[in-house]
Amino acid sequence: MSKQAKLDQIAAEIVKNNVCPDLAKQAKHLVFGEGSPNAKVLFIGEAPGKKEDETGRPFVGASGKFLTELIEGIGLERKDVYITSILKYRPPNNRDPKPAEKEAFWPYLLAQIEVIQPEVIVTLGRHSANCFLPELKIGHEHGKPQKWQGWTILPLYHPAAALYNGSQRQIIITDFAHIRALTHGNNKSLS
Questions:
Q1: What's the rounded Cα separation, in Å, for the pair 98 and 103?
Q2: Mean pLDDT across the stretch 85-103?
Q3: Which of 3, 56, 165, 169 would give a disulfide with 29, using CB separation of 3.0 to 4.6 Å?
Q4: Is residue 145 part of a domain?
Q5: Are 66 and 162 in contact (CB under 8 A)?
Q6: How far apart, in whole angstroms, are the C-alpha atoms of residue 19 and residue 113?
Q7: Whole-number Å distance between alpha carbons of 174 and 154
Q8: Is residue 187 part of a domain?
Q9: Residue 153's domain spans which residues?
Q10: How far apart are CA 160 and CA 125, in angstroms?
Q11: In the sheet where 146-148 sits, what is the strand order?
């Protein structure tokens, strides 16, 4: 079975198992993830927003446009990486994910990671980072690679942070540059 077929199977299991039925009931779409199933870089946000729920695609709103710029800024395209979130359904009014919701989706996120086998897992924002590294303080440790169960985790500020606070923009751009150094054969394409 191809990696894409395995990912499709995981998405189908979320629906079949009725994960977070309260979220599913009010969502327009499951936002599972997209990109290359062979990606060396996996981006993980916290949850879909309004635009993502409408389209079924991750990071397509304003912060998604900035994420795309950041990806292109290190010489890649969105199709070269894989982008997903912890939660696969939009929380009402874009509220923060609840611990029980993160816990419910966690096995499916781990299954995605196992299929993709990325060289670097880039967590976008504190909710994503804290799923892997509960003690991590994003304000102190953004842009600093961490190890988690054999995986390299690069915790970064969420791209939305730059939209709300212009001074974060350059920090995010600088931190993003670390991605290349963390992949094997970093002089070549990361896809």
A1: 9
A2: 94
A3: 56
A4: yes
A5: yes
A6: 18
A7: 13
A8: no
A9: 3-181
A10: 9
A11: 34-35, 82-85, 41-45, 120-124, 151-156, 146-148
- Quote the number of domains for the chain: 1
Query: pLDDT band at residue 164, thresholds of 50, 70 and 90?
Result: confident
List the CATH number of the domain containing 145. 3.40.470.10
Inside any domain, residue 189: no
Q: Are 23 and 91 in contact (CB under 8 A)?
A: yes
In this prediction, residue 188 has a pLDDT band, given cuts at 50, 70 and 90, of very low
Q: Distance between CA 42 and CA 19 in Å, rounded?
A: 22
Q: Give dist(CA 70, CA 45) in Å, integer.
A: 14
What is the band of 165 on the pLDDT scale with cuts at 50, 70, 90?
Answer: confident
- 140: tokens are 């102190």
Q: How much is the pTM?
A: 0.94
Domain membership of residue 107 (yes or no) is yes
